[in-house]
User: Fold this.
Amino acid sequence: MAQDPYTLFPIPTPVSDSHLTAFSTLRLLSLHTDPSRFCSTYARESVFTPDIWRSRLDDNNKVTFIVSTRSSLPPNDEEEEWVAMMTILGPAALRNIPHDTPVEISARGELFMIVSMWVHPTHRGKGLGSQLIRAGFDHVEKYQVGKLGDGYTGELKLLVLEVLKDNEDARRLYAKESFVEVGEGALCQGGGSVWMAKSFY
Ligand SMILES: CC(C)(COP(=O)(O)OP(=O)(O)OC[C@H]1O[C@@H](n2cnc3c(N)ncnc32)[C@H](O)[C@@H]1OP(=O)(O)O)[C@@H](O)C(=O)NCCC(=O)NCCS
Assistant:
């Protein structure tokens, strides 16, 4: 868990209306603030209906972790603001989404993928990115064989992500959290990205 004054948690499902609003606001803020870091765009997602946002979150094959400014210690009834997020796609989700993970990686085990990682600029450099990644490690480590009825057989688990080559902050963060570079990617069809992976045995 993130250290005070922050709280880190997975968005519970089924998602509540207030969480839906907080999530869509945060995601749109990330696309608006750092358009060069994402393949999707503010223009595309700003016209999403509530049902589209809901279907993103009410999907058992994904989990989205949030960091909020709410203290995890009492009294904790102050106003909270969501300031960081990261989604992990599980093996079943990845079977339905086209991705160009290097074959030598995807052939080695069950894939999990980090997407939509973002920390609000005023909260960067405080370890929130690391905290989110470690929550992701915990999630992957605890992922149960057959939990989602998706055919997971208990082989090696690999947590992968694709990052633009010029995104040095993010690459340094992932390297610090023991991801290794495993191949070139073509993020957003534009090239200039690298795949990074971490194995779980
Ligand atoms: C990349 C990002 C998520 C990092 O979040 P963060 O909360 O600032 O990261 P942390 O505070 O946990 O930093 C962890 C490590 O990352 C590196 N790092 C992160 N930001 C850095 C910066 N501005 N300058 C130098 N190193 C940085 C450091 O190695 C740091 O280790 P340290 O704490 O020992 O110095 C954040 O900058 C961000 O949201 N960027 C825009 C969106 C983005 O690029 N997403 C990733 C897409 S793949």
In short: The pocket of coenzyme A is lined by residues 34, 37, 117-119, 124-130, 163, 167, 169-170, 172-173, 176 (CB under 6 Å). The domain at 7-144+152-200 is CATH 3.40.630.30 (Aminopeptidase). The chain has one domain: 7-144+152-200.
